[in-house]
Amino acid sequence: MGACKATPWLIATNVLFGAVAGYEIETGIEKTTTPLVGLIGFGIDMYEPLCGAACHDILWRAELSCSTPNPTGSPGYIRHNPSSGRPIQDFLTSASCFATDVSYLTSTAYCFDQYCGAGADNIPVWQLEKAWRKYVASGEEPQWTYGEALRQSQEALQDAEPRLWEDGLLNYTAILDAERYDAVYGSFKTYKYAETSHARYGIITLVLGAGVPILLTLAGYLPWGSTIGHWLEPYLSASIYKGYNMRILPFWLGNAATVGQALYVFSFFSLNLIVSAVDYHYHWPHRMYESRNIEPLYYLANRTGVLAFAIAPLVILLASRNNILLWLSNWSHGTFIVLHRWVGRVFVIQSIVHSIIELHIYVIRGRYPHEETKSYWIWGAVATVAAVAILVSGITWARRTHYELFLISHIVLTIFVLIGSWYHVQLLYFGARGYENWLYACFAVWGADRLLRLLRIAKTGIRISKVTELSDELVRVDIEGVRWDISPGTHAYAYFPGLNWRVWENHPFSVVSTARIQRSRQAKTAGGDTPDSSSTASRDNAFRIEKSVGITARSLDCKKTMTTTAGVTLYIKKSRGMTSSLRRSRELTTLLEGPYKDRSHEGLMKCDRLVCLAGGVGITGVLEFAATHPNSKLYWSMKDSDAPLAQDLEGVINSMDEARVEVGQRFNVADILDSESEAGYKTVGVMVCGPEGLCDDTRALVTRMGRHRENVSYELAVEAFSW
């Protein structure tokens, strides 16, 4: 682990794949101990100039007068490249030997002049001097500059017939075979083009994947953009399969996406397929390949591997709570989580394709037994297996039935993917290719999200909350002293480190202002209401509230009893895991990570009419909307067991102009929407939060009505916290 300075602290919430076996043209040119900034073709110049790289690649293989015997059978001075299959040499040549051997220096200088000079590639002399220092002695300073070596070669060739060198001992100033030079030059040119294309298409894929939400949001501000958006909304918000969205598909096949989400996923799949298949150049004969069939396979393997690395930062970004796309677009966090899963699947597919092709190449070339025991290969295999394991362990059944186990395994496996990926490329390329920069982007995204989470928690500080048990299934958690600007759609993540040893556990909850609840209670008390006379306290558990005007105004004496307006309240339905440990009327150490706003719901507050539909504890998700919008009506239904929640919120409900509550029975959502739509409003917002069935049924009804009603446009928001 000591060789990896960047990875021990990395814990990521999403996946990154380290490919099983990379490909390298090893000439000694690319070996570096300092990681390079950028990507090949974008900050990293590969084989520059090509003519100098080709000259060096041919001549560094020569046996020199200062070369020494090779008793170990290693492939020579330069680090062995697993892809090249270079034959074992019976001599070793040190860097100092290259830097001082006269025949080698003069032959290389003559080649530079012949193929890089004014009559050929026309490379400036200053650039040739730079290439000379870079290539000739693998970073060691040669005893002559390029200009001095060229003069020495010209003097040597004045009195002697130029001699061609093809193999064996080089103890004279030699010229190179033109056909051999062209093969190496063409090989480097096509390989450089391929690597530049890999980086280019990786950038395109990443930018488009992250940029589409921003571009579509900006399009809504263009002339006619809002009109087109409202016309498309009923089509894009509909589910792609029989009204399923929040509900699980049969046979635990997951959640059906909306049409809009499916279009993004389909486009992203198509983009990856296209950029994986296009823009390849080939050259034959080739310096590295023994057959024409190998070159396309290597290029495809490298392309899919780079694309997997390029997608990885996007996978992490889409799952982040502090996702910058949430601030720059009007897409919801729930949508980004759906896209995270699908983009992650694309990423794993690219990785698997890359791995299979690489493995096939090494097997058919007979290199697999030799490479499988090397560290770079092992780390790549670790990353590959971990990435596939993340995909398998993330199936819907595992997430729903064993969420905490899924979450921990997700993080642990991701650590293996990240570490394996970093070691894989670092041990193979030593930072020369810039592949690790994709990983650094992942680390930056993950690190920024985690840092902002900690800052949100630190800003609120450690709080002591009071837990009041309303029923066997429901508790109210009051957290005093929290001064947040609570707007509709605000939610937070609550940590209760004293409940169990898993102090990291947290869950999202809609946030209600404690002051709102207290004011409503005091207003009810000041008005003389009692639980027995309240319109919401029917003993047959089928009570309803119908109000068209506000309740009695609050008195000055009532306001004076409010000691503070700070504080937030959470209503929690106990289930398995952390929430099952909540007990009656006890104080708990509480950490709050928030507040998180939701820009995707901003359009609701601009509608002429807002219809809020809540089921059970889902009231917390719509309460601020119903209480804030100037023309809203709340419809709240619940099971008999949730009646204590209605009693606890009785004052808030009574303070609303229009509210209807049903206990023990459900509303007919279709009748509600028909009635509201026929009232003459031009825009009707529908906010729903509750059981999955209620959410899906409402989505299906609203999207169908939006497609068929010409005089009314609808704004739909569904909140279920089923991430």
Tell me the number of helical segments per DSSP (H or I, 4 or more residues long): 23
Strand order of the largest sheet: 10-9-13-7-8-12-11
Global mean pLDDT:
85
Beta-strand percentage range: 5-15%
Shape verdict:
elongated
Into which percent range does the helicity of residues fall?
A: 40-55%
The biggest beta sheet reads:
7 strands, antiparallel
Radius of gyration: 34 Å
DSSP summary, beta strand count: 18
In whole angstroms, the N-to-C terminal distance is 34 Å
Could you describe the 3D structure shown?
The model is unreliable at 1-33, 76-85 and 530-562 (pLDDT under 50). This protein folds into three domains: 48-176, no CATH class; 200-248 and 257-372 and 430-456, no CATH class; 461-719, no CATH class. It is elongated, with a radius of gyration of 34 Å. It has 23 helices and 18 strands. The protein has 723 residues and is of the alpha/beta class. A hairpin with a 4-residue loop joins strand 7 (463-469) and strand 8. Helix 7 crosses helix 23 (692-708), helix 8 runs antiparallel to helix 9 and helix 11 packs across helix 13. Helices cover 47% and strands 12% of the residues. The longest helix has 42 residues, at 178-219. It is found in: Membrane.
